[in-house]
Give the backbone structure.
Amino acid sequence: MTTTTMKREDVEVFQVSIKATAQAIWDAITSPDWNGRYGYGSKGDYDLRPGGRYQVLPSQAMKDYGSPDVIIDGEVLESDPPRKLVQTWRPLWDPQTVAEGAKQLTWEIVEGADGVCTLTVTHELTNAPKTRKMVTGEMKEAGGGWPMILGDLKRLLETGASAVTEQQQS
Amino acid sequence: MVTYARPVSDDDLVFRALADPTRRHLLDRLHARDGRTLTELESELEMTRFGVMKHLRVLEGAGLVVIRWQGREKLHYLNPVPIRLIHDRWIDKYTERRVSALAGLKAELEKHA
């Protein structure tokens, strides 16, 4: 994969401050025990080594809706727990996003004052207009994208509740 | 006079940042094309470089603009997450009530139809 052709406007940046430890945020991103408890409620499985496999499995609701067996795939490029994770990311439920290909996704966690961390997600989206609309939340039917996921992650770590846990209870 | 010692919350910073038309305009420019330099943003506004810088700093403080360095260039990116948090906290809450009130009204009307 080359980044030399990447234009600066082909990058989307998402940032959220979370009152939690860097390790708790890292686990919430990378551990399947945690990463299915917020956002879309689908579990992500990481092999946290360079070249390691990344797969997101559909939630029951997604399966009922006829989703593929793996809804997102990718590869781990760099893993520096609990600070930085670089991976590729490709949504598989839509032929157009499959054709747009795997794009680079970077997670960075910086510890600040008062036990508050800043989580920054940088998504490189060169020549990926549909993937971009999905992940920015611009596509209404795609359900909110990274802003929704990160907002729900913040809520889960700060309050213990998320959109996913509330749905399970109702 | 009663004063309340209340810390400034993240929501306060976002509402304050959004309360200014120049700052909303800057966010609209970044939404149209992300990752701009100060010079690019300044060229579209009838304002001094210092004035634009001040507004960008307020947007940064509220988390609505995130800086990313590319070589020596300081690039400004729109961060939609704080607006999503405001949406979740304020908009959803009140629109849901209105929707359920309308649903109640509909059920009521149909019962009598």
